[in-house]
Amino acid sequence: MSEASQRPEARSPRGFVDRRARDLAAEREILTRVSAVYERYGFEALDTGAFEYADALGKFLPDADRPNEGVFALQDDDEQWMALRYDLTAPLARFVAQTWETLPKPFRRYAFGPVWRNEKPGPGRFREFVQCDADTVGSSRPEADAEIIAMAAEGLGAAGLPTGGYVVKINNRKLLNGLLATAGVSSEGQKLAVLRAVDKLDRLGADGVRLLLGEGRKDESGAFTKGAGLDAKAAEAVLAFTAAGAASRSETLDAIARVIGGSAEGDEGLAELARIDAALKGLGVGADQAVFDPSVVRGLEYYTGAVFEAELLLQTTDDKGEPVRFGSVGGGGRYDDLVARFTGERTPATGFSFGVSRLASALRAAGRNLGREVRGPVVVIAFSQDDMGEYFKLVGELRAAGIPAEVYLGASGMKAQMKYADRRLSPAAIMLGGDEVAAGTVTVKDLDLGRELSAGVTDNAAWRAERPGQQTIPRAELIPALRRILEA
């Protein structure tokens, strides 16, 4: 076997992506901005480990000897199975159960970091991605849900979405439960079938969902999906419920009340939404940021009360300029049963989560400038090995002044070095030859100006006329000259 045939192929595992500086800068900026909002609301940062014991995760795990479906798992040396976390909520539930006696109650925390899912990858569906969560554990008040919603809206705005560019849609599981109870639906399986049918409303429309609420639906390929088995009256009641959204939150509550028929659980859900509405009004969150939408059912089989979903409203296009719909960029709700997996006692909790990479992609697709360009360092051209000490002395001065800088350490000539600096999006290149060293001067080439001129930029002509593309100046004037280039 030849040496070449034994070499591994350079390839990324499916569902894992390499990210360069632009993407990382955008994500870091989102996290910095959103974290500042969460901390203003009094939420504490928390970081849990990447691995959890597999039995503590629960959500994806089947009854199998090797719990590696849905998660990436391995066996520790004590034969206990550990798995990479698939979200940030399951680790929070474990942490709260483990440390409950020492925590301030309610416990308000936010967290961000990578999560991993052992699922089939596809377009926009990765096996590793970064999430950002905020949760309140220990409060059953609907006002805790309202604060999470308000914080989510403000966080999305801080991340770069303008008012009108997003909306948080809010529903409550108890409303649909009350409606289904009135219709005589009691089994969890039938409830879940109704939820799955309603979740397809955007894609199939009312007629398609009507079929799925009844006996079932045959798609274009001829494949048949069994329906929820509701009678015609119950199916129409569900559709009327999903269409009850109105211009204002209070009008939507009135419309829902007319549909759900006064069931005890439904009335409880309405009362909770009314309290959320009052708190949101107090927090200054209007209908342009948060609305009640009965058609939102995402995750309702998991949530126990309020549920919310953040939808992107901005016009977005892909790399080819074609329109693309992002839809949801985050979601959450009330989940009062998760901590009980460990303690046996119901512990109220509510939270919101968004995918950082997805939000960064949505912002970029909407033409927002967040993380669009990452500036390279000032590059000091290396002419001679004999002057290498001077080059490093110079970059040391620049770094001490807070200006990113590097000495070119390749083996190429000056032309290639200038091309390197341009590819790094360096603002300037510094030339320090023997004559400059002797004279105490440096030559500065303004690469930003060169890029503007080559791109045919015609505005701000007066500024360009006063800005030399290349100048030789006393070394003592270098830092102020570079600052002018950087600020420009």
UniProtKB/TrEMBL annotation:
Pfam families listed in its UniProt record: HGTP_anticodon, tRNA-synt_His
Enzyme Commission code(s) on record: 6.1.1.21
Any GO MF annotation of the entry: histidine-tRNA ligase activity
Tree of life domain: Bacteria
Keyword line: Aminoacyl-tRNA synthetase, ATP-binding, Cytoplasm, Ligase, Nucleotide-binding, Protein biosynthesis
InterPro entries with a match to the protein in the record: aa-tRNA-synth_II, aa-tRNA-synth_II/BPL/LPL, Anticodon-bd, Anticodon-bd_dom_sf, His-tRNA-ligase, HisRS-like_core, HisRS/HisZ, HisRS_anticodon
Known catalytic reactions: tRNA(His) + L-histidine + ATP = L-histidyl-tRNA(His) + AMP + diphosphate + H(+)
Gene3D superfamilies assigned to the protein according to its UniProt record, in alphabetical order: Anticodon-binding domain (3.40.50.800), Bira Bifunctional Protein, Domain 2 (3.30.930.10)
Residues in Aminoacyl-transfer RNA synthetases class-II family profile domain copies: 39-377
Subcellular location: Cytoplasm
Top-level enzyme category: ligase
Record family assignment: Belongs to the class-II aminoacyl-tRNA synthetase family.
Subunit structure as annotated in this protein's UniProt entry: Homodimer.
PANTHER family to which the protein is assigned, alphabetical: HISTIDINE--TRNA LIGASE (PTHR11476:SF7), HISTIDYL-TRNA SYNTHETASE (PTHR11476)
This protein's name: Histidine--tRNA ligase
Gene that this polypeptide is encoded by: hisS
